[in-house]
Amino acid sequence: MPELPEVETVARDLRGHVLGAEIISAWGSWPATLRTHPLDAIGPALAGRRIESVGRRGKQLVLGLSGEAILTVHLKMTGQLFVVPRGAPADPYVRLVISFSDGRELRFRDIRKFGRVGLYAIDPGTQEPVREVGGAAVFAGTGPEPLDEAFTVRAFRSRIRSRRARLKSLLLDQAFIAGIGNIYADEALWAARLHPLRSAATLRPADERRLYLEFRRILAEAIIRRGSSIDDYTAPDGDGSMQEHLLVYQHAGEPCARCGRLIRRVVVGGRATHFCSWCQRLPAADRTSAAAILRTMTPRAGSAAVRRGGRWTELDGDAALGRTADERARAAERARARAAERARAGAEQARARAEQTRRAAANRRARARDGSGGG
Predict the structure, then answer these.
(1) Which of 89, 275, 292, 373 has its CA 20 to 30 A from that of 350?
(2) 3.20.190.10, 3.90.1150.10, 3.40.30.10, 3.10.129.10: which CATH number matches 4-142?
């Protein structure tokens, strides 16, 4: 799912294409895409409005409209936005089309149909977007923006010191901090040398500061690189390149860029989590509660999850019978070499599979752009 850097990139690209555009009509093809209106009502609700701003709140795109309203777009897993000439080739995966007076269209394309679009009024009293005047604000449950100047290390500490959840789950909680998702949570925790299953209650002041600095640094770098085009994410002006600079996410079975040991993978709260168990040590206080999750760790590259013991005639090292110390040392060295070779082979296979997946995703994005007339 696109995270803060990806949505920020889409907002910046769209700003150059649609700012000031006047909407003359709109239509949708999938009812669940619209959070707030039935399909036959979205056109009349948008017609005549002008796009006055394009921004972001957390993982949602926010288009400010004339007439005191906003349009929110949550891309979810496969949502894409393209600005194309009216009459561009039809695309069966387009769920919402907004037509402008200058002959262009903003198309929301979403293969999996998880994306959501909402049109909200601005409450004149609070100046917050609301579903109905006097009602709760749309973003009332959304946490602070991690790159906001007002979100200082002191503000971060005041929030995290009241929580006891595991760090990975906490960073994914949009009510805690807005915009961080699976990719950048893994990267930030690795950079800060903090285990994803570690409890927030065990952090020292230095740990808190390091985590704060790292997730801000990584998010800022990802924005510069236009986000991570790993699966279906692409922006109106093209793909991102941050995926080429990720050091731990989707690198299970490969050597850690810091210590050379293998990156491991577990599932935390239904989300794949990548870390180095050597660089990111788990404090003793958290090991008991995390034991069940850690038992699901992926095995070392090139090894089977369960391996039979060798026959007594095949045993090496200290388990061999009748060998001298020198012979045992040589046998142990051979065993280490074989294990290293298995690890290298496994890592190479993992890289090949990942590259194949990346190529398939890139081809999918390219076809989407061609089909929607994107440049």
Answers:
(1) 292
(2) 3.20.190.10
Domain 153-294 of CATH type 3.55.30.10: no
Task: Please report the pLDDT score of residue 369 as a whole number.
Answer: 76
The answer to whether residue 15 is catalytic is: no
- Kindly name the residue from 12, 271, 330, 358 that is annotated as catalytic: 271
**Residue 110 DSSP code:** E
| Active-site annotation holds for 76 | no
Residues 6 or more apart from 283 whose CB is under 8 A from it? 195, 198, 199, 202
49, 56, 57, 59: which one is catalytic?
Answer: 59
- Output the pLDDT for position 132: 80
Low-confidence ranges of the chain (pLDDT < 70): 299-324, 327-328, 372-375
Q: Is 59 a catalytic residue?
A: yes
Q: Which helix (H) or strand (E) holds 358?
A: helix 325-372
Q: How many C-beta atoms lie closer than 10 Å to residue 62's C-beta?
A: 20
Tell me, what's the pLDDT at 322?
Answer: 57
Q: Torsion angle of alpha carbons 270, 276, 279, 281, nearest 10°? A: 40
271 is catalytic: yes
Question: What whole-number distance in Å separates Cα of residue 233 and Cα of residue 293?
Answer: 30
Q: Where are the domains of the chain?
A: 4-142, 153-294, 301-375
